[in-house]
Amino acid sequence: MKVQLRAQAEELNTCVGRVQELVQAIQTSGLQISLPAPYHAPPSTSEPPCPADTE
């Protein structure tokens, strides 16, 4: 189990590194990307918050 978790952590770190490289390349190129803001419903005072896709 520990070996599997370690392998998954290494894979995640590799992906994070690649994303950081992409972000840096985009920033240095001067390219501006606008992403839509995700919609988050305001929390209800009578129910605990839950992700929108589980309703």
UniProtKB/TrEMBL annotation:
Compositional bias per record (Pro residues), positions renumbered to this chain: 39-55
Region listing for Disordered, in residue ranges: 34-55
UniProt-recorded name of the protein: Uncharacterized protein
Organism classification: Eukaryota, Viridiplantae, Streptophyta, Embryophyta, Tracheophyta
